[in-house]
Input
Amino acid sequence: MTRQRLYTCLLALIHLLPGMAQEPQFGAPFDFPLYLSGNFGELRSNHFHGGLDFKTQQVSGKPLLAIADGYISKVTVTAGGYGNALYITHDNGYTSVHGHLDRFLPEIAALVREKQYREQSFVVTLEFGPEEFRVRQGDIVAYAGNTGYSFGPHLHMEIRETATNEPIDPLPFYKDKIADTTPPRATHIMVYGAKDEGKVATAAGSKEANEVDGKIIFNSQFSIFNSLTAWGRIGTAISANDYMDGTTNNYGVRYVRLYVDGKLVSHSDVDRFSFSEDLLINSWTDYAEYRRTKRWYMRSTIAENNELRMLHADAHRGWVTIDEERDYHFRYELEDLHGNLTAYRFVVRGKRMPIVTRLRNYRYHMDASGDSRFYAAGTELWMPKGTLFEDADLQYEVYPSDTDHADIHQLTAQPIPLRQSAELTLPVRLDKAFDGKKLYVARVDGDRRIYCGGTYRYGRITTRIKELGTYTVCADTIAPKIAPIGETTWKTRGIVTLRITDAETGIRSYEGKIDGRWVLFKYSSKNARLTCDLRAEGIGPGHHTIKVEVTDMRGNKRVVSYNGTF
Output
């Protein structure tokens, strides 16, 4: 090849590269100005928010537009979660997910209803091939609403990488359509010592900070200059939100960076995650503090078994060693995708002080690097390798219970989150005449008993748990409640509405029949409403018998009938 031909080929390749590396383009999901009520990666209980929540001008029924060419690949209907949801597989290698929809297009709605009657189930999933429902960018594909676990009309929209099914932050595609000149802001900062290796303290009489379980928490507006001291290995955490123009909502923070004496110690970039990483949120944040105050603190230290990819740290995993009697200068930076940035500075003064090392009871010590098993008086805990984020010491105690079936079993005084569920078995006191299928394990949270399921066998009950804490055994022998709502309007409106509730274990299933025939009743878990539009389901005016059966998680069943002219 001559030098001239080589030059020509290289020049052609240079012109091709920008197109080859070009980012995909997505259009707006609506034809009106875009405002967000939620952003990607916001911290939620046991999971990250997987998309953007677009406001729909406070109403349901706004036409939803396809954001790129592709085909409708799936629709789902659920009582909670996304409610009515639509999936579009795009030609550019991404899939968009649209949740809380009011309704589908008529041809898809007809297929959904057909399957609901065929399977006699409100909850259904339909999948479609590439040639069945092709769409072009800008086509109307559904209508936004308020179904599922939604508490106001809006669109939940995700963009996932089709090959991996991993959600990515959609906001970079809409930066030019969403105004944001408002920087993130912090509310509180936390400083804490590593167990057995570090200690933090404040000056006597300091009004700027509170100490909770060995952690110093202070309002971010205070400088804490010369009042905060520490020795050994310490970590920090920050509670913060982002904000945008034209709304009163708060959002998750895209970038958090911690510098100590000018050196970057750790940082986070909430750009993408996999659903298998959801539970890792409980190690990134201070789980016990969230349970106590419902405030999220993003920790700048990374636990040994936390592989969350959005977190990055130095060789010390974000821990800072205070081993000189001098001032250490800390700086947090919070930044959003639009480049709005806020910095918070505080000083930790190195001060030599004794660090108490607790004697370890190896019977109660759980090693995160291997399998862990604990057994005492009929209580058994089994955690295979990979269950713990870091080593943990049980604080096992047994207390009298207010039930007849078991004592209260404390595994740890403060809740400790797990990377994956562990197996817990508790002993049971049971009269031979009692049905063991009515028993369940409950997590004790103050006066509350939170259902955790369980299977009874030979005097013990076993279940899976997501955190170490305090547990007991309860029994549910009471059937769910069914109550009519607006019964006097059933005839005039042609809509039957019931409230179905279960005080202990929750609703497992329900079924509605009219004149002996299965009929579609729609269930909304957020408000416990069971609704049937008689006319839409082909039930004409006249005398009818309505029969509804509801079953809870322990098999207790309630059946009610209503006879009348509807």
